[in-house]
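User: I want to check something. If I give you two sequences, will you return the structure for each one separately, not as a complex?

Assistant: Yes, each is folded on its own. Here is the first sequence with its structure:
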Amino acid sequence: MESIWEDEIRFKSELKKSVSKMNFNYSKKPLVYISHPFLTHGSPKDNLNAVSKVLSDLVLRYKDQFIFISPIHNFGTLDGKLNYEDGLKICLDLLERCDGIIMCGDYIHSNGCMKEMELAVKKGLQIWKLEDFK
């Protein structure tokens, strides 16, 4: 009888093999990460509302040129379930997959946004301010 760990190791090995055989048809449009404070200024709810408007406006205006992604929308429900460092790491992992970043809101005073910008510079990503899209 196999242990739970052996089952898990076998599952992960099989999953890795199946994923490596997949032929993904990715869009040619650049994937753009929306960086916006979440916990720094205002409540998380206020910041979610603000970035929701930004995301909506960008998608409606530039849907043919870009794919936009918001880590607040992807991971905001994990607030209070992860410590700050783990939450930021998940966001930075997502940013690693992107082609560019848009800096929004009061990003200058947000430690998370500044870490995202630092990674974007290090990776040579295109960096915009929201005003560049107005």
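And separately, the second sequence with its own structure:
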Amino acid sequence: MGFALEQTMNSMLFNAGGIDMTVYLIVVPAMVLERVSEPSPRLMARIAGVFYLLNILTGSLAIFFAARGHVAWANAVNLAATACYIAVTLLFYEMFKPVSRSLSLIAAFLSLLGCAFGLLGIFHVASFHVNPLVFFGLYCLLIGYLIFRSTFLPRILGVLMAFGGLGWLTFLSPALAKSLSPYNLIPGIFGEGALTVWLLAMAVNERRWREQARVLPSGVGFQGQRP
């Protein structure tokens, strides 16, 4: 969410630099994926919550530095926020594969696409402008649906995430987003924030996650009842 909020600030289009930060973007998500290659669902969920929280904090800090003209600091922190969001994306892909492998993969692709467009904007190499929030809106909609169809997370979190996705999708139209600002940010902040807090505090129901993983190894939609 922090990285997503950062994209609403026109002042965040900076000249980027620093090979070390570029390496950081590659190494950190790879380490996370390796760490969860044999996932414990609760550990995986909590790690995702930690990276989600770091994304929110670093994204907010990037906005703070940008507003005060500290370009280098804002740029570096924004890259860190992007790395955190990539880590969340990879973890969520693994976490929601038992619900639907194909939808989880599509969601991850959209999120990584949003991160890529955000980085292109920072590095000033995009030949055309696409607001990354559009991709994050689609991502939140799919994650919301996956949560709703899961058995291991409360369905209300899925509703909140989908509602947040609709808020980010208002950025399809710059004029509409401007007219609704800042109210169109509230659903995303609330939805992603609620999911972050839940993952940190409660993680997932491991028994139900494993049951759903056994029932649906191919990721087909789940029709089971919750007790």
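Because they were folded independently, the notes below concern the second chain alone. Residues 2-213 form one domain. The mean pLDDT is 83.
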